[in-house]
Design a protein that fits this description.
248 residues; globular; 7 strands; binds zinc ion; alpha/beta
């Protein structure tokens, strides 16, 4: 008799949470204009729709992108695209820094970390939202941005939530595109959150220099459906973090 509830509890414990944390102020840290939308867009929209103030920190202007659908000056154009897409997602602010695109790894970690800390303090954030430390697409800039945010979160004792992909979707994208997408097995996923992608799709079109009908983004969103997968990359040590962590 006693073993039945025990097994049941274990199954429940292994099941990912369904709700995003009830943070009042969030800092989303990314490497390039469009990462906040293509990657984090649906999660940012879900947070802002639930009443969170989401501040976006983007380290580069994305001037090294190999994609330029509009033939524009990328540094200037992508800054404007970030502002418009951020507004579409309901972001409270977008801070765009001028570190070299494709060169973030060469910037001292402590310098990037200090930029994150500055905004964490300025906006009195409860938690951070980042790309998974795989970089998702394997991009070194994504990895550097996450490493800096993670170090800043850890130093402040704040929780950080990382957007990730289920391993099966990453494998499928890898097979179809040859790009080094990286995912996580189910036992490394902490949250599986239902999202609405309408605003994310609208915001994606605002990154006009970076989207085309054949962009891998559309295929990824199709495979992801209406779910986003996240994991706690930093648990945080404040009392409030525990409450959020157990939210279902
Ligand atoms: Zn990127």
């Amino acid at each position: 008799m006693l073993r039945i509830p025990e097994v049941h509890d274990r199954a429940l414990a292994a099941r990912p949470g369904r709700a995003l944390p009830a943070w009042h102020h969030v800092l989303a840290v990314v490497a390039h204009p469009d990462d906040e939308t293509f990657g984090l867009g649906a999660v940012i929209d879900a947070l802002t729709s639930a009443g969170s103030a989401v501040h976006v920190l983007c380290f580069t202007r994305g001037e090294a992108s190999t994609i330029n659908e509009t033939g524009a000056d990328l540094a200037a154009t992508r800054a404007a695209e970030l502002r418009r897409a951020g507004a579409e997602l309901g972001a409270a602010s977008c801070t765009l820094l001028d570190y070299p695109d494709a060169g973030l790894r060469a910037v001292p970690r402590a310098e990037l970390e200090a930029q994150v800390t500055r905004l964490m303090v300025q906006h009195d954030v409860d938690g951070l939202l980042v790309f998974d430390d795989t970089g998702i697409t394997g991009h070194a800039d994504h990895q550097a941005a996450t490493a800096a945010a993670r170090a800043a979160a850890r130093a402040a004792g704040l929780p950080a939530l990382a957007w990730t992909l289920p391993a099966a979707i990453a494998r499928q994208l890898q097979a179809e595109t040859g790009a080094p997408f990286a995912g996580r097995p189910a036992d490394q996923v902490d949250l599986c959150v239902r999202v609405d992608r309408i605003r994310q799709r609208r915001a994606a079109f605002l990154h006009a220099s970076q989207v085309s009908p054949s962009a891998v983004l559309w295929r990824r969103l199709q495979l992801q459906g209406d779910c986003e997968h996240l994991r706690w990359i930093e648990p945080g040590r404040r009392a409030s973090a525990g409450k959020h962590l157990s939210a279902r």
